[in-house]
Amino acid sequence: MVFALILQADGGGVPELGAQGFKALGEMMSNIGPIAIGVLTLLLISSLYSWTLIFAKWSAFRKATNESKQFVRAFRKATRLQEIASLAQETPNSPLAQVFEDVYETYKRQTGGSGPPLNLTPLERSAQTAASEAITALERRMSWLATIASTSPFVGLFGTVMGIVDAFHGLGTSGAATLRAVAPGISEALITTAAGLFVAVPALVAYNQFVSRVRIFASATDDFCRELLNSLEEMPARPAAPPPVSPRNPDGGRDLERGPQR
């Protein structure tokens, strides 16, 4: 309303947005002060870093999803742990493969690589630790998206406040409520406000989507841990080795020939 009154006092009307919109925006940018330039520079750096994180995380989640689906299908079809171990090395981006590698290393230390596990407790601990590390790796640097989403509007608001201050300073200097006196300050306020929202909204949307994906990965990893431990627990025991057969006693019984007969 104040802005409309100023327009009426100046004798002008609401400017029409048309082909000269970009030209007007360029003129507004050329009239902003050093504080607004600093705010826009900070917001530009935040936006570039935010979009870099968004594309990097999107690529990482896509690879993790595809490789996890491939690994689970192979895991449920395989009959030997060695086959799954070789596949896990081919799918390093899958959190499920990372869990299997850690559990398999613990299993080999217990049994030498064959037979049922001697104790499931160390395997459970290895699975929990590996799952936690895998999910933490997926969450890495996501807090920056939340930080950018929450602070960018306030950075833009700072530019807005300074623009309004500049507008009132122009009114005080000119001594008349004209559009020419307040236009630079109002343009600074509007540009910094829009820039803050432009930086914050994509970061907030991406952060919420990535948090949802991380929860799905965490649930899938927990389910795979239980499935893997159940598979190891249900492994058949190795058959007992037959007694050594004496060359003079093929039946495997007690050798009665202890020496030369008298």
Structural description of this entry:
It is a single chain. This protein is mainly alpha-helical and 262 residues long. The protein has one domain. It is built from 8 helices and no strands. The protein has helices at 2-10, 21-31, 34-77, 81-90, 95-111, 120-139, 142-174, 179-233. The radius of gyration is 35 Å and the shape is rod-shaped. The termini are far apart. The model is unreliable at 1-18 and 252-262 (pLDDT under 50).
- Helicity, as a percent range: over 70%
Intertermini distance: 130 Å
Question: How many individual β-strands?
Answer: 0
Q: Any low-confidence stretches, pLDDT <50, length ≥5?
A: 1-18, 252-262
Biggest β-sheet strands, sense, barrel? none
Key terms:
single chain; mainly alpha; 8 helices; 0% strand; disordered N terminus
How would you summarize the topology of this molecule?
Layout: H1 2-10, H2 21-31, H3 34-77, H4 81-90, H5 95-111, H6 120-139, H7 142-174, H8 179-233
Helix pairs in contact: 3-7, 3-8, 4-5, 5-6, 5-8, 6-8, 7-8
Summarize the structure.
With 262 residues, the chain is mainly α. Helix content is 76%, strand content 0%. The protein is built from eight helices and no strands.
